[in-house]
Amino acid sequence: MLIVKVAALCVATAMICAALRVQRPEMATALSLAAGVAVLAMLLGELNRAAEGLSVLRDRLGADADIAAVLLKGAGVAVLSELGAQLCADAGETALAGRVTLAARVAMLALCAPLLTELVDAVGGALA
Asked: Coil, helix or strand for 93?
């Protein structure tokens, strides 16, 4: 099971980083970053399966391709921003982690703006 492998990798890395941090904090940070990249690589297959599942859902619902694209982009922004924020926090840069989170929120708003405009237009047309 993938989650077991990810959890084992992260726990082992955390233990090694805790031991390294005393003598070589820069090595602990580098190891933590490398483990984060490895976890992301391990998750690529699952991300592809999730994207395929959203495609099937879009086809079954007859949803517009633009909506599906926004969903996929939003999911990508969420995953990458979470990874970036956690890596910054692991490196002791909590302020930078907050900026990553803020950037993700702005990116999500930018992704949703065209859909919100269409929704307002549709509601306005239905009420007129």
From this structure: coil
